[in-house]
Design the sequence.
């Protein structure tokens, strides 16, 4: 296993003690249990974030060559686990320099963990609070997060976490793990200029 971390010795990864014994199946079992025990999304992501961090500190042997598939035209979304019950889903996303998502939300909670590279998230704040339609949406540019290896970030719905994610042109390819509270087969895409959004369907293994 080739590590992508700057390891000062064999027991350290990302500045912390490596945990080679924590593997994917245990992570998923623990995350399912945390989700069941924490119906409130903010409680759920608080419980799951340390699990994602622990997974990143492991040997990452569950990541197969197919999970690192990239696409020259857009970021690639590679399914790692799709729950049979429509529950948790985990994806490896591969971002080449200059590849970005549209402005979007997810309609569920999520926990993102960085495998390698630098991923940027640009956030948007919606100010038309009483509007429950898909038109007349007012978005304001918010803060930016730069995520590096072993960073874990989370989001919750209601209000929606609206953001755009990608890798700057002058950076190297990034790989990130994304755990969602449901199968991520649809989400809202926002048109800032038009002040509107639409729900789009995606196959689980497509971008
Ligand atoms: Fe997202």
Sequence:
């Amino acid at each position: 296993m080739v590590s992508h971390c700057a390891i000062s010795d064999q027991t350290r990864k990302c500045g912390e003690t490596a945990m080679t014994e924590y593997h994917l199946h245990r992570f998923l079992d623990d995350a399912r249990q945390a989700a069941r025990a924490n119906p409130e999304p903010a409680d759920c992501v608080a419980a799951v974030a340390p699990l994602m961090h622990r997974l990143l500190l492991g040997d990452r042997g569950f990541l197969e060559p197919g999970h690192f598939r990239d696409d020259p035209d857009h970021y690639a979304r590679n399914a790692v686990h799709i729950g049979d019950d429509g529950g948790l889903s985990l994806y490896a996303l591969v971002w080449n320099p200059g590849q970005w998502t549209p402005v979007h939300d997810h309609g569920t909670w999520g926990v993102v963990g960085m495998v390698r590279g630098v991923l940027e998230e640009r956030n948007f704040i919606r100010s038309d609070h009483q509007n429950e339609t898909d038109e007349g949406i007012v978005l304001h540019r918010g803060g930016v997060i730069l995520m590096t290896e072993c960073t874990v970030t989370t989001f919750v719905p209601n209000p929606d976490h609206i953001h755009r994610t990608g890798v700057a042109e002058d950076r190297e390819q990034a790989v990130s793990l994304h755990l969602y509270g449901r199968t991520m087969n649809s989400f809202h895409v926002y048109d800032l200029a038009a002040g509107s959004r639409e729900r789009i369907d995606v196959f689980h293994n497509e971008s």
